[in-house]
Specification:
Layout lengths: L8 H11 L16 H15 L3 H16 L9 H16 L5 E4 L11 H13 L4 E7 L3 E6 L5 H14 L5 E5 L8 H9 L7 E7 L4 E6 L13 E6 L6 H11 L4 E4 L9 E6 L4 E6 L1 E4 L16 E2 L5 H16 L3 H18 L6 H7 L1 E3 L2 E6 L2 E6 L2 E7 L4 E4 L2 E10 L5 E8 L4 E5 L3
Parallel strand pairs: 3-4, 4-7, 7-8, 8-12
Antiparallel strand pairs: 1-10, 2-3, 5-6, 5-11, 9-10, 13-14, 14-15, 15-16, 16-17, 17-18, 18-19, 19-20
Helix pairs in contact: 1-5, 2-3, 3-4, 6-7, 9-10
């Protein structure tokens, strides 16, 4: 159902996962004397034949050949430095951030035809849990998925299905794409299929070389329950790129998610890896463009604007608080409202931390029955039995307990303002009290 979408994707992805960048190590590589003219000729020919916009490809060719004639490259004898210079020059003309050029001593191989290459790249994806960095249930039963890449669904599908099943009972869901550089449209299809009720047209890719279009739709069937009638939030940053941008863009235009954070990187073109054996260079060449069925355009060069603009480091707590605030507005049950308000207090404290003076912190230190309040590294710590937890101030005398979402601490004072006891506050409304002994 969810196929590998474009040749060369796995090869490119494997390099990214293994090396952390699209490059080739220079240590220990015997480098031949560079034939700059041949490299420029071979590279520009490949772009002319495959780049999504022929007119732009012609401009890139003219620019590189002019640079060659002007001697811009003549003193570069390191192929990796030359590759980077060529990449910069191509992007300067095209403004296409998907373009890359790198030196490669040996052909990386095609995973479509070489099982060993495919196995190596799948192993690299598996070592990163197919992009699923973290799953968490946040206070208030809000689901959180930290997704670092959109791996092809034929490999990452079972992990994605498990993640969505795990989130099925949450009351809202946050996808964190702030550190997601993209990947495969097939994973976008799979995840979005859980968020919509029926097959939905997500995107169309126009392919320049064949003058054809390929549509991408959500699936009619998913394993486990769909995630419907619940709010979805997507966290974005300037590092959110390519397929991660498509996921964000699709959901925004479908009005299925609220985007929180910063404007994304602005790369909408699908790419293929081209290995130029004659010059031992490789290039990532955008071969098509995305066409959204709603906007009839894409996010190339502009990025995706969030619905709620905040600094990237503030996006999670902002989305979390928005989810809880919206649940609170919709809830009709008094007990449910109390539970949501309880969680919202904690999130508000995280968003706007209360700073207490050193002498105030010291005043809480003491023994309260079997509970001990200590001060460690200018931070109040709650001790009971073998457990030690950091206290987070909600106001002057009320604290959340780090790691215990259902429990809080309330310090009680007498008529003269002296601390005389400590009350344990529980999410279900129960309380207990311990007198201060010293």
């Amino acid at each position: 159902m969810f196929k590998r979408n474009y040749p060369g994707f796995l090869t490119f992805l494997g390099m990214v996962l293994v090396t952390g960048a699209v490059s080739s190590p220079s240590i220990g590589v015997a480098k031949e004397r560079l034939n700059h003219a041949k490299i420029v000729e071979s590279l520009t020919r490949e772009f002319k034949e495959n780049y999504v916009f022929p007119d732009v490809a012609a401009k890139m060719e003219s620019a590189l050949k002019k640079n060659l004639a002007d001697g811009r490259y003549k003193d570069i004898d390191d192929p990796e430095i030359l590759a980077n210079r060529l990449k910069v020059d191509l992007i300067e003309v095209s403004h296409d951030k998907h373009i890359n050029v790198f030196y490669r001593e040996k052909d990386p191989g095609d995973p479509e035809t070489n099982p060993a290459v495919e196995a190596r790249e799948v192993a690299a994806m598996a070592s990163g849990n197919f992009g699923f960095k973290k799953l968490e249930i946040l206070p208030g039963n809000i689901g959180y998925i930290d997704l670092r890449g959109f791996m092809p669904a034929e490999y990452g599908g079972p992990t994605a299905v498990a993640a969505m099943k795990y989130m099925a009972n949450t009351r809202a869901l946050i996808f964190d794409l702030r550190n997601n550089g993209g990947g495969s449209p097939s994973m976008i299809q799979l995840l979005t299929s859980y968020l919509v009720a029926s097959p939905t047209h997500l995107n169309t890719f126009y392919v320049r070389k064949t003058n054809s279009e390929e549509q991408f739709w959500t699936a009619a069937h998913v394993e486990g329950p769909r995630y419907l009638d619940k709010e979805v939030y997507v966290l974005t940053s300037g590092g959110t790129f390519s397929a991660a941008e498509e996921f964000s863009y699709n959901l925004k235009n479908l009005k299925r998610a609220t985007l929180v954070g910063e404007t994304t990187g602005g790369g909408a073109h699908p790419v293929n890896l081209h290995y130029l054996k004659d010059i031992k260079f490789a290039a990532m060449i955008p071969f098509g463009r995305a066409i959204n069925p709603i906007t009839k355009t894409n996010w190339e060069g502009t990025g995706v604007e969030p619905d709620v603009k905040v600094k990237t480091e503030e996006a999670l707590t902002k989305a979390h608080s928005l989810a809880l605030e919206n649940l609170l507005k919709k809830s009709k049950d008094a007990d449910d409202k109390k539970r949501i308000s309880w969680a919202l207090d904690t999130v508000k404290a995280q968003r706007s931390p209360l700073t207490l003076k050193a002498e105030t912190l010291k005043s809480y230190v003491g023994q309260y029955g079997d509970r001990v309040i200590a001060l460690e590294n200018e931070q109040l710590v709650y001790n009971r039995g073998t457990r030690k937890s950091r206290l987070i101030p909600l106001d002057n005398d009320r604290f959340a307990v780090d790691g215990l979402d259902h429990f809080r601490v309330q310090f009680n004072r007498d008529g003269q303002g002296n601390l005389v006891s400590l009350s344990g506050l529980y999410e279900d409304g129960k309380t207990d009290k311990s007198e201060r002994s010293k």
